[in-house]
Design brief:
By secondary structure, the protein is an alpha+beta fold. It has 13 helices and ten strands.
C-alpha cells in the first residue's frame, strides 16, 4: 500500500486539467471584434492548475513562441476553473481556458480549440496504463484486466458528465459498469475471479482520471479484488508505481503531458499501452468568441 502521507485534493475542488482566464467585458462576437483586443477583454491572464502540470508548461511555452509578451499564466485549482468557465458562459463573457479532451465541458458547453499553427501543444495524445514491475507474475488477473482496459472519449465523458451534474463518482462508476456489460466483458475476458487480493491504483485529480480510475476499480472489485485508489499529484503518481508503492495507474498522458515523467521512470514501469486514443490539450474558448487561433491573441 502507499506509504506516503499524501495531502488529498478534494474531488469537488479539483476535477480537471485546465487553465482559466477570468474575463472582463462582453465575450460575444460583437464584443471581441470591437475596439478592445481579446487580451484586453480577459486582462491578458491565463490562470492554471498546479504549476507542474504539462498543460501549464505548454501554455508558458505558447506565450513565448507566439510572442504574447503581455500575457501571464497564473496557477489555480481545477474547481475554480470549472466555476469560472460556467459563470462566463452563462453571461456570455470572454474567457480562455487550456482544456483537454476527454472532458465533460465539451459535452455540456459549445467550445472550440484555438488553432495552434506552431504545434506548441503537440499532436493528439494517448492515455496509457502503467503498472509496476513484477505485477504480472504476482497478480496475473489484475495485470490482464488492466492490459485489456480500453474505452472511448464518448464513454468516458458519460461518467464525467454524470459527476458534473451532481452524481457521486462511485455511483456514476457503478451505473456505467451496469449499463456497459459487453464492454466490461472485453476487459475481463480470459481472467478468473479472485478472493480479496489487494491492489492499489493511483491517479491525479483530473476529471478524466477520476472517471477512469473509479470505473476500472469498480470492475476489479466485482472480480473479487480489494481495491484501494489513492489520489496524488502528477510526479508522485509516477513515483509510486515506479517504486512499487502502488500497483498501477490508468492515467498516463503521453507523449506530451507526462513526457518528462515518462522519461524519468520508463525503465521502472511496464507500459500496457493506450486505454484511450485521441486525447488532446490546447487553448479553448466558447464558440461565441470571435477568435480562431492562438495567433489572434497578439
Amino acid at each position: 500500500m502507499l506509504k506516503w502521507n499524501w495531502k488529498r485534493l478534494s474531488v469537488a475542488a479539483g476535477l480537471s486539467l485546465t487553465l482559466v482566464a477570468a474575463g472582463c467585458g462582453s465575450g460575444t462576437e460583437e464584443g471581441t471584434s470591437g475596439n478592445a483586443s481579446v487580451g484586453e477583454t480577459v486582462d491578458y491572464t491565463i490562470t492554471g492548475i498546479d504549476a507542474g502540470a504539462g498543460v501549464v508548461k505548454s501554455s508558458e511555452k505558447a506565450i513565448e513562441e507566439y510572442g504574447l509578451e503581455d500575457w501571464e499564466v497564473k496557477t489555480s485549482s481545477g474547481g475554480a476553473m470549472t466555476e469560472e468557465l460556467g459563470n462566463a458562459i452563462e453571461d456570455e463573457e470572454p474567457i480562455i481556458v487550456t482544456g483537454w479532451t476527454p472532458h465533460w465541458k465539451f459535452a455540456k458547453y459549445d467550445l472550440k480549440y484555438l488553432e495552434d499553427p506552431k504545434g506548441v501543444f503537440g499532436d493528439e495524445e494517448q492515455i496509457k496504463t502503467m503498472v509496476r514491475q513484477g505485477v504480472k507474475e504476482e497478480k496475473p488477473n489484475f495485470h490482464k484486466i488492466l492490459d485489456q482496459f480500453a474505452w472511448t472519449t464518448d464513454e468516458m465523458e458519460q461518467v464525467m458528465l454524470s459527476v458534473s451534474d451532481g452524481e457521486d463518482i462511485e455511483t456514476a462508476a457503478k451505473q456505467w459498469v451496469d449499463d456497459n456489460e459487453d464492454k466490461v466483458a472485453e476487459w475481463t475476458k480470459g481472467t478468473e475471479k479472485v478472493d480479496g487480493i489487494e491492489v492499489e491504483l493511483v491517479y491525479v485529480a483530473w476529471d478524466s482520471e477520476i472517471a477512469s480510475t473509479n470505473v476500472i476499480a469498480e470492475v476489479l472489485r466485482r472480480q473479487g479484488f480489494a481495491v484501494k485508489i489513492t489520489q496524488v499529484e502528477n510526479a508522485m503518481m509516477w513515483k509510486a508505481v515506479a517504486e512499487g508503492e502502488a500497483d498501477g495507474m490508468v492515467a498516463a498522458w503521453l507523449p506530451g503531458t507526462h513526457g518528462d515523467l515518462y522519461e524519468s521512470y520508463k525503465d521502472q514501469v511496464e507500459d500496457l499501452g493506450a486505454n484511450l486514443e485521441g486525447a488532446k490539450i490546447g487553448l479553448v474558448v466558447p464558440k461565441y468568441m470571435d477568435v480562431t487561433s492562438i495567433e489572434d491573441l497578439k
